[in-house]
C-alpha cells in the first residue's frame, strides 16, 4: 500500500469523518496489515483445505486411477501422508512444491500442476541427453557471443553451480514428468538451463549468474560464469488470505481446451468438444523442435520439396529416391493444426493424391508431436487406411457432466435424422456412460469420443501404398494414438523409438482456490485393439505409460546425429523404408 503524505487540513476536507480517534485506528490497522504481510503465509487450515480441493478433483475426474495404483503403486486417494507433509511445510513455496509433487506422482504426461506466475530465467543455451550424456544442442549467439563463450554444440554440460547434470535431472524430474523414464529425463535435462516459476515454485531463488562447467569435444573442461536472463515477476508467497467460516470453494472448469474451436465438428459432436483434447502441454517439454513444422533431421541431398512448412503450410512434405524406390514424406507437427482442421485436411488430401500417383511408399513423421484433437487423429487415419478399421477407444471416467453431454449428442443425432443404426450406436454409448456413472468411480468400456462406433471407414481420398511412421519418445498423446491405430490395423511399420505413453484425453481445470493452481486431468485410458505385452507392465490394451513400440528401433538421440543433422538416422530409416516398401 502506498500513502501519499498530504497537509492535515486537505485530508480533513477530503474525508470529513476524519478524527484523531480514526487516525489511531488507521495506524493500528496499518500496523496489523504490516504484520500480516510479514507473515504472508497460508495457515495450516488453508493448506489442508487447498490440498483436499485438489485431491477431490482427481478423485472425481481422474480416469487411470486404478492403473496407476496397480502398476506404479501410487494411490492418489491415500491422502493422509500428504496432509501430514502439508502441515510440515515451512512456507508457501515449499507447500506449492508439495502440490506439484502430488500430481507428478501419477507419472502422467498429461497431468501437470502449474501456477499463474510469470517469472522465467534462462542461460541462453539448451541441453538434452545424447548417448547418455547431457550435451549442449543449441546456443543463442546473441546472448552468448562466441568470443566470450567459445563452447559449442555437442559439448557436454558437466555441472551447474557445483551440481552435476545427472543430479540436476533427478532434482528436476518431478517438474518434467513425461510418462516414461527416458522422456522425463530428457525433459528435466532441458530445465537445467531454463526455469519457469509457473512449473518450479522456487525458480525465482536463482542467483544473478550460474557457474557452468563444460567439457569440450577435446576433453578439456572449462568453467564459465553465465548471467541468468530473467523476466516476469517473482512470487514469494500466496498468503495471507482470510478463511471462510464454512464451506469450500467450488471447482470450476478452466476453459483452455485446444480443440473446442475444431471447425470440422458435426453438430452432434460439438457437445463433447471438451473431451477431445489428447495433447501434452507444449511449453512443458524442453526439447528442440517439439511441435515444430519441420523435422528434427535434414533431408537427403536428392529430396524434392513440396510443402516447406512456411506461411499457411500445415505440413512439410516432399519426396526422394533411394534404391530405385520413390519415397514420399510428410511431417505432421501437431494434432491441433494452427490453420484449422478443415484447411489442414484439405492440404493433407492434396498431398495424399500426389503421393498416390507419384510414389511407391510414404514416410509419415510424427516425432516430437505434442498431440491434439482426437477427431483430427481419426480423420488423418481415414486418409491413410483404405479399409474399415478400429479406432482407439477411450475408457472414460464417467461424471454427471459427461452423462449430460453424451445425452445431448444422442438428442442432436436424432434431430439430424441420422440412420437408425448410427443412432443406435449413440444410444449404446450413452447407456455405457450412464451405467459407469452409477458405479463407484465407474469407467466405461472402450468407447468413441467422436462417433457412434469405434469402427471407421476410409475417406474418399486415401493412400493405398506402403507406409512407414517415424516415432520417438516425444510422440505424445494424439501422436501416441495415431501410430497405435496404424499399427493395430496392420497398415504401417513403425520406425524410431517408443512413443511417450500419454494415453488418454485431458481436461484443464482451475484446481485450487488459495494457491490459484491450475491442473490438467486425464479423464480416460486409451484402449487399443489388442493387449500389448512388455517387460515393464502386465499385458494390457493401454497406451498409458506403455507407449507404442516401433517395429524397427532406431535411436535419433546420438551425438553423431546431433552434429550431422541426423544423417545416420535418415540413412537408417530410409533403408528400413526401402526394405518395407519393396516387400509390400
Could you write a compact summary of the structure shown?
The protein has 584 residues and is α+β, with helices and mostly antiparallel strands.
Keywords:
single chain, 584 residues, alpha+beta, Pdz3 Domain, 2-enoyl-CoA Hydratase, Chain A, domain 1, 3 domains, 7-stranded mixed sheet, 4-stranded antiparallel sheet, 15 helices, 27 strands, 32% helix, 21% strand
SSE blueprint and pairings:
Blueprint: H1 8-14, H2 20-39, H3 44-61, H4 65-71, H5 80-88, H6 92-104, E1 120-122, E2 125-130, E3 133-139, E4 156-160, E5 163-164, H7 165-172, H8 181-191, E6 194-196, E7 209-215, E8 221-227, E9 229-231, E10 252-253, E11 277-279, E12 304-308, E13 316-322, E14 325-331, H9 341-358, E15 361-365, E16 371-373, H10 374-382, E17 389-390, E18 393-397, H11 400-415, H12 420-437, E19 443-447, E20 455-456, E21 467-471, H13 478-488, E22 493-496, E23 506-510, E24 518-522, E25 524-532, E26 540-542, E27 552-553, H14 559-564, H15 567-583
Parallel strand pairs: 14-15, 15-21, 21-22, 22-27
Antiparallel strand pairs: 1-6, 1-9, 2-3, 4-5, 4-7, 7-8, 10-23, 11-16, 12-13, 13-14, 17-20, 18-19, 18-25, 23-24, 25-26
CATH hierarchy, class of the largest domain: Alpha Beta
Largest sheet: 7 strands, mixed
Kindly report the average pLDDT value. 91
- Tally of helical runs: 15
> First CA to last CA: what distance?
74 Å
Write a structural description:
The protein is α+β, with helices and mostly antiparallel strands. It has three domains: 8-39, no CATH class; 120-231, Pdz3 Domain, CATH 2.30.42.10; 270-549, 2-enoyl-CoA Hydratase, Chain A, domain 1. Helix content is 32%, strand content 21%. It is built from 15 helices and 27 strands. A seven-stranded mixed β-sheet has the order 12-13-14-15-21-22-27, with helices on both faces. A four-stranded antiparallel β-sheet has the order 5-4-7-8. Strands 19-18-25-26 form a four-stranded antiparallel β-sheet, covered by helices on one side. Helix 10 (374-382) runs parallel beside helix 13 and helix 11 (400-415) runs antiparallel to helix 12 (420-437). The chain is globular and about 60 Å long. Mean pLDDT is 91; it is low at 1-39 and 246-260.
Amino acid at each position: 500500500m502506498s500513502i501519499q503524505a498530504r497537509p492535515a487540513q486537505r485530508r480533513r476536507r477530503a474525508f470529513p469523518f476524519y478524527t484523531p480517534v480514526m487516525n489511531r485506528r488507521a495506524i493500528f490497522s496499518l500496523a496489523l496489515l504490516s504484520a500480516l504481510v510479514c507473515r504472508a503465509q497460508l495457515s495450516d487450515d488453508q493448506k489442508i483445505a487447498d490440498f483436499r480441493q485438489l485431491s477431490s478433483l482427481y478423485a472425481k475426474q481422474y480416469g487411470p486411477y486404478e492403473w496407476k495404483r496397480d502398476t506404479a503403486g501410487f494411490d492418489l486417494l491415500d491422502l493422509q501422508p500428504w496432509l501430514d507433509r502439508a502441515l510440515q511445510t515451512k512456507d508457501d513455496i515449499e507447500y506449492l512444491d508439495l502440490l506439484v509433487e502430488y500430481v507428478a506422482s501419477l507419472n502422467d504426461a498429461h497431468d501437470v500442476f502449474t501456477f499463474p506466475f510469470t517469472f522465467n530465467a534462462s542461460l541462453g543455451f539448451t541441453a538434452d541427453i545424447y548417448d547418455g550424456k547431457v550435451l549442449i544442442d543449441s546456443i543463442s549467439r546473441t546472448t552468448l557471443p562466441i568470443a566470450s563463450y567459445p563452447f559449442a554444440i555437442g559439448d557436454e554440460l558437466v555441472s551447474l553451480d557445483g551440481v552435476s547434470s545427472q543430479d540436476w535431472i533427478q532434482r528436476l524430474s518431478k517438474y518434467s514428468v513425461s510418462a516414461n523414464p527416458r522422456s522425463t529425463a530428457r525433459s528435466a535435462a532441458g530445465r537445467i538451463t531454463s526455469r519457469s516459476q509457473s512449473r518450479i515454485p522456487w525458480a525465482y531463488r536463482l542467483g544473478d549468474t550460474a557457474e557452468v562447467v563444460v567439457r569440450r569435444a577435446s576433453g578439456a573442461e572449462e568453467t564459465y560464469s553465465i548471467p541468468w536472463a530473467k523476466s516476469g515477476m517473482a512470487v514469494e508467497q500466496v498468503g495471507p488470505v482470510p478463511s471462510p467460516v464454512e464451506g469450500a470453494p467450488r471447482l470450476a472448469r478452466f476453459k483452455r481446451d485446444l480443440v473446442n474451436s475444431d471447425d470440422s465438428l458435426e453438430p452432434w459432436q460439438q457437445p463433447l468438444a471438451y473431451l477431445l483434447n489428447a495433447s501434452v502441454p507444449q511449453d512443458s517439454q524442453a526439447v528442440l523442435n517439439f511441435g515444430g513444422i519441420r523435422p528434427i533431421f535434414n533431408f537427403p541431398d536428392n529430396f524434392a520439396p513440396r510443402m516447406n512448412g512456411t506461411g499457411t503450410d500445415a505440413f512439410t512434405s516432399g519426396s526422394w529416391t533411394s534404391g530405385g524406390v520413390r519415397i514420399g514424406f510428410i511431417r505432421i507437427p501437431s494434432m491441433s493444426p494452427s490453420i484449422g482442421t478443415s484447411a489442414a485436411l484439405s492440404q493433407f488430401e492434396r498431398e495424399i493424391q500426389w503421393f498416390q500417383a507419384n510414389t511407391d511408399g510414404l514416410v509419415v513423421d510424427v516425432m516430437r508431436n505434442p498431440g491434439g484433437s482426437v477427431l483430427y487423429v481419426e480423420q488423418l487415419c481415414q486418409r491413410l487406411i483404405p479399409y474399415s478399421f478400429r479406432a482407439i477407444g477411450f475408457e472414460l471416467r464417467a461424471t454427471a457432466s459427461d452423462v449430460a453431454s453424451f445425452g445431448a449428442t444422442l438428442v442432436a443425432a436424432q434431430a439430424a435424422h441420422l440412420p437408425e443404426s448410427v443412432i443406435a450406436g449413440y444410444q449404446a454409448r450413452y447407456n455405457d456412460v450412464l451405467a459407469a456413472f452409477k458405479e463407484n468411480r465407474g469407467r466405461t468400456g472402450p468407447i468413441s469420443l467422436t462417433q457412434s462406433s469405434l469402427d471407421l471407414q476410409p475417406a474418399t481420398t486415401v493412400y493405398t501404398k506402403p507406409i512407414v511412421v517415424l516415432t520417438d519418445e516425444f510422440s505424445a498423446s494424439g501422436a501416441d494414438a495415431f501410430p497405435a491405430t496404424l499399427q493395430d490395423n496392420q497398415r504401417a511399420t513403425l520406425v524410431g523409438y517408443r512413443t511417450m505413453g500419454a494415453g488418454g484425453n485431458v481436461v484443464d481445470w482451475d484446481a485450487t482456490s488459495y494457491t490459484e493452481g491450475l491442473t490438467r486431468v486425464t479423464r480416460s485410458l486409451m484402449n487399443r485393439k489388442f493387449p500389448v505385452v512388455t517387460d515393464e507392465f502386465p499385458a494390457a490394451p493401454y497406451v498409458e505409460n506403455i507407449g507404442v513400440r516401433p517395429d524397427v528401433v532406431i535411436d535419433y538421440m546420438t551425438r553423431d546425429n546431433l552434429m550431422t543433422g541426423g544423417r545416420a538416422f535418415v540413412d537408417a530409416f530410409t533403408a528400413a523404408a526401402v526394405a518395407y516398401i519393396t516387400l509390400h
